[in-house]
Structures are given as C-alpha cells and as structure tokens.
Amino acid sequence: MKKLVLLGGGYGSMRAMQRLLPNDLPDDTEIILIDRLPYHCLKTEYYALAAGTASDQHLRVSFPEDPRLTIKYATVTDIRLEDKQVALENDEIVEYDKLIIGLGCEDKYHNVPGADVHTYSIQTMNQTRRTYEAINNIRPQGTVSIVGAGLSGVELASELRESRPDLTVKLFDRGEIILSMFPKKLSVYVQNWFLEHGVDVINKSNITKVDENGLYNHDEFIQSDAVIWTAGVQPVEVVRNLNVEKDKSGRVILTPQHFLPNNEDVFVVGDCASLPHAPSAQLAEGQAEQIVTILKKQWNNEPLPAELPKIKLKGVLGSLGKKHGFGLMGERTLLGRVPRVLKSGVLWMYKYHSGS
C-alpha cells in the first residue's frame, strides 16, 4: 500500500481527510495521521478554554474513522525529505509516498528576555490547559497581563473580563489603536468596548523584559500574577529546521500547487506555509481543498494546473465575551451582537459537519 502521511491533526489535515474518505482515496493508498492528541482541537477557541468559559471537551472534535486511516499518537522530531521518512520521538520511523505537513505554529518571542520562560501560551491544548490553571489560581484582585492585541489577545482579554471580573486585565498593544489592521470603525469599537468594561489597553507598548513577577513596558516594571503571550507566531521547530526555502517569517515557500519546489510529493498546509494571507483556520481548509485536487490529479496521472483559483476567505469574526463581537465580511464591518451570533453558528456548523 502507498502511504499518504499527514503531520498534525489541525484544520488542514481534517479537511483533507474529510475530502478523501471514504470514497476518494485510491484503493492502493492508506492515510497515516500523526498527532500528539487523539482528537482534533478547535484552536480558534483556545482563548475560551484559557479564560475558563469553555470546557476542554467543548474544544474536541473526533478524527474520522475509516479502515484505511491509521492514527499514530506521537511528536514529530524530524522530517527527512531525501529519505521520504518522518522520525517520531519514540525513535519510530514512518515512511511516506506523499506527505502533508500541517504541524502548526508556536509563539515567537522576538528576543524579549524572559518571555520564553515566564509567560503562558494558548498555542497548544496542553499550553492552554496550563494557562487556564494559572489564571484560575490567581488571587482575587490579581493582575493578568496579555502581550499582543491581535485576534487571540483581544478575545482572551474580553473573555477573561467576563469570567474573572475581580481581576485587573491589562492588554498591551504595539499599535496606535487596537486591531489596527482592520477598518478604523472596528478598531474604535473594540477599543471602546474594553474601555467601558474596565480592561486596561496600553497602546504603543514595547515589552522589553519579562520575569517571574511581571513585565517591563518601555523598561517600566508592571507587576503581574500571570503574563500571557499572544504577540506573534512562527512555524514549529521541526519545520524551521527543514532545509528548504522560506520567507522572512520562516514559513515554507511553495509552488502554486502547494508542494515544495522540485518535490511534488511534499505539501505544506496551514501556519507553516508561505501564503498571501495571514494564517487562519479558513485559509488552511481552503488550501487543503486545493491540495486534495492536486493529489487526485497526481494519482490519476493527469496534468497539473499551472495555477489554482485564489482561495476565497469569507471574512473574520471575533468575540468580545459571550454577547458582543466584531467582524469583517468583505468590505462590510459588523459590530455588536450579530457577529457574535454568527461566530457561534459557524462553530456549531463546523462541529456538526465534522461529526462531533
């Protein structure tokens, strides 16, 4: 049997399995999925788990079940492209005929001293559980500092305001205004929501150091019972160690067909791939759809298209607690209850169609 190996059970791998199983996988091919956990995790909702407003169980989606799908629970330690092998932490070697790398990302600390040691994360399920435990154990009237006011930081700060109203929540943002990459109307709405709900937004911040007692903003010390880092990501170390061409963010440069230049057997999906859009679950799913199209053509010995259609993203939806939110759908800005309801609906639909 030929082997299609999927590294990581994220959004891209889930979509690829959904499209190939049960009817579109060649009879002579099996799928091997390698992941550390026995279920797909809803990473877009990690902020809620960290804040204590969603349960661990709520963020799990079962992997597909099929006799031609084998799941290995392990950590990938090395990808040996020349040998067509993947090395696992238990010294096991998995060989592949086709490989899809979807191992995701980890925090990028921008060389800030102490940030890698003294901050909490919401990048993996295990890290998010640890962050939840730390927040849960903070004394009343304690202080939580969140570094980075992108989507993750904003959603975490707003959810934490609702789950622990006794805490002081500080959100550190490098920009002039929060979510500055979005239309100003949206940014102003979110910044004002935080102002009205007692979250301290520190704009034009520059975190210069983190230690066990807090952080330094422009070298000024701010005591914190927990510092949570949401200020940028990079591909995981295994991908960073690959001897392939990468962009300035460390993401792997691909052909228009999503495989490595000069290697039609290795695809990269999601956060590790260099694409014209910011990494997102939507983008990983759209990319996976196109990868499946290419795989089918390869298996059928059909010519590959020189270009693929532009991946269409439906927009961005963010939450501000359980009742408010914000969104950008094309050119239209959504504020208030509607985008929050839409986000809940999208999440329900994803879980329903994924069989959980």
From TrEMBL:
Give the coiled coil ranges. none
* Gene Ontology biological process terms in this record: aerobic electron transport chain
Among InterPro entries, the record links this protein to: FAD/NAD-bd_sf, FAD/NAD-binding_dom, NADH-Q_oxidoreductase
Q: Give the Gene Ontology MF terms in alphabetical order.
A: NAD(P)H dehydrogenase (quinone) activity
Q: Which UniProt keywords apply?
A: FAD, Flavoprotein, Oxidoreductase
Domain called FAD/NAD(P)-binding: residue spans: 3-282
Per its UniProt record, the required cofactor names are: FAD
Q: Which domain of life is it from?
A: Bacteria
Instruction: Give the protein family.
Output: Belongs to the NADH dehydrogenase family.
What protein name does the entry list?
Answer: NADH dehydrogenase
- Which organism does this sequence originate in? Alkalihalobacillus alcalophilus ATCC 27647 = CGMCC 1.3604
